Amino acid sequence: MAKILDKQRYKCAMSAMSTVQAIERAIPILHSGPGCAQKLSNSSGSSGFFSPNIFPCTSINEKDVVFGGEKKLRTTIDNALKVIDADLYVVLTGCTPEIVGDLVEDVVKEFSNAEKPVIFSSTPGFKGNNYKGHEWVVKSIVEQYLKPTDERIEGLVNIWADVPYQDEFWHGNIRELENILKQLGLIPNSIFGYKRGINNINKIPKAQFNLLVSPWVGLENVKLMEKKFGTPYLHYPTLPIGAFETSKFIRTVGEFAGVDKEKIESLIKEKEEYYYYYIERYADLFLETRVMSKKFTIAADAQYALGITKFLVNDLGLTPAKQFIVDDTPIEFREDIKSYFKDLNYNIEADVSFITDGYKIHKEIQEIDYHGYPLIIGSYWEKEVATKTNGHFLNVSWPVNERLVVNGYYVGYDGGLRLIEDIYSVVKTRFN
Ligand code: SF4
After folding, report:
1. Residue minimizing CA distance to atom 7 of ligand 1
2. Which of 95, 96, 126 to mutate to test the pocket of ligand 1 (most atoms within 8 A of CB)?
3. pTM of whole model > 0.85?
4. Are 49 and 80 in contact (CB under 8 A)?
5. What is the pLDDT of residues 367-378, one digit of tens each?
6. Which helix (H) or strand (E) holds 158?
7. Among 5, 38, 39, 41, which residue has the most ligand 1 atoms within 8 Å of its CB, making it the best to mutate?
8. CATH 3.40.50.1980 is right for the domain spanning 156-272
């Protein structure tokens, strides 16, 4: 029997058009019905040089289903190359052309001598969600555009983190990861956001190593790059938020990169002194705020559920109630991710559930005894259950309808302080 998924928390794989859009001067060419693009185009912060409203689309219809949409795709790519000034064209396929069996790869190959690179990625919604779609776009760039090289740039590190636009903090987070690496004396290289784009894509095969900061998204990409370019990778599953995790992150990355130990420790010392100066100034607020229960619940993708749980336990001394991971994490990663939730300070372990159905998540939250007003961090959907449980609510994961995030971030020492500000700005409203 068909199931209804209550409270959608991700989009279909073709929403990877946002991943392409996050690469400056790259444009998706959509081989799909017009409804797909329209449905997937409501991300916050997606206007600009190329916005979803001008993405070339074959807008396939009934006739193309019967006779095939290859001719239309050929014309659409041809015209896009003529009228759109981009550095990279990425053909994305929706469900219909995939079901009728259009030979997209063959059509795209006809443009292999075009002035600008044209690649394709198979992204029908029936194959997966936009976390997977994001991976497939990066995979297509590696497989179809990049070439192996013997050239290596010492200290150059490719940074990969979670999914642009699905993670509303993507831009700020990746910039802060870059800043941390710069402070270690490394040369960060990322392909997403302001002034990155094709030049940085071209540097990928020359890196000393790939750094993946994500519980699971992108793991298959760094493995592919290891195979194709011989680039080793460091998988750091936890988004480093606050002092405890960021210091651990700096040590791990620094040691992997061969940075001098003294340099690593002096950077950590400087940053922790600065961080704890602020914690000390507001310690009375954190310790005396009895309006908030010490127990919290997060309902978010694996990245935020893990990163924020570690921060709240290790830095703020709170206790996890049940946590919910809502990104439909592939089964093969689940045991590892569960084990990360057991690696908390003070021998604390967090109970975690992989679940996508909002009704069931909310039912479970309502059955938990938080011994006070709970802290609930999640998507906009959790506002409803926070209201029912008289909880404190912060909207961090998609959909984010409660706030605007431009270049804000939660990564690093400053990111941890921002998260504290956001949480206690909510908590303090109860005093009024
Ligand atoms: S699930 Fe398929 S038909 Fe629906 S928006 Fe995604 S690609 Fe289009």
Report:
1. 94
2. 95
3. yes
4. no
5. 999 999 999 999
6. strand 156-160
7. 39
8. yes
